[in-house]
Each structure stands twice: as C-alpha cells, then as structure tokens.
Design the sequence.
C-alpha cells in the first residue's frame, strides 16, 4: 500500500474539495492517460486495485506511471465511541483528486489495449474517468 514514509504533521484537517486541477493536467510521460472528471478522495487501496487491473490487462508489455500519491492522513474513531474524547488515530491515507487530474499513464501498447485497460481501472475508482491520448 502507498503511504508516506514521514510527514510533518501526524494528523490533517479535512479542507474543502472545490475547484479544478491546475497541476497534473497533461499526459507527460506516457501516450495515454486516465483523467478524473469529478472530485473525490482516492485511498491507497483504490490506487492499488486500479494498478493491478491495468498491469494484469497489459501483461508484460508497456510501462505504467501512477501520477497520484496518497499523502493526506484520515483519522477515525472505533465504532460505538461517544462524542468528544479528541481526534481519532490515523486510519488510512488518501489523495485529493480534483476534476482534470491525470491519475495514470501508459506507454508502449496499442491504443485499443490502452483504452480498455484504463476503462477497467476507472471502474475501480470512485471518480468518473476519461481516457486521454497525447
């Protein structure tokens, strides 16, 4: 699972999720990319599930880039916990994805295979996705 080795602060505020992406908006490394059309938090399990689907579909051909990284800690209390008692412990890490963010890129395979692999990966993610070509 993806998670940061070290963070400046252990716990983070929720923040608002508005706006569109201004960085990670172009396909830079590969020939095809998977772009988010809606905003959402994507956790490390979802990124890993999408990566596994793509690598299994393209087999040993091509190269895959993951352009997003879960660096925002999300805290949680145990079930049936009363109100108060402070902020919970860090449960997992998420990546804040805004509309327009290119999350994955692929190179070295034909267009049909790349589009199908990206579409399968999009089904594993909580955002609406679109396949781009360079």
Sequence:
């Amino acid at each position: 699972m993806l998670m940061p080795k070290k963070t400046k602060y252990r716990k983070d505020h929720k923040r608002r999720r508005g706006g569109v992406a201004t960085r990670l908006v172009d396909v830079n490394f590969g020939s095809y990319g998977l772009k988010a059309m809606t905003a959402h938090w994507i956790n490390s399990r979802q990124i890993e599930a999408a990566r596994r689907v793509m690598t299994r579909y393209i087999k040993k051909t091509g190269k895959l880039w993951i352009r997003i990284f879960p660096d925002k800690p999300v805290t949680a209390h145990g079930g049936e916990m009363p109100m108060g008692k402070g902020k919970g412990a860090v449960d997992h890490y998420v990546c804040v994805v805004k509309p327009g963010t290119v999350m994955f890129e692929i190179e070295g395979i034909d267009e049909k295979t790349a589009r199908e692999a990206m579409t399968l990966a999009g089904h594993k993610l909580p955002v609406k996705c679109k396949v781009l070509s360079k």
Notes: The chain is about 20% helix and 30% strand. The longest strand covers residues 89-97.
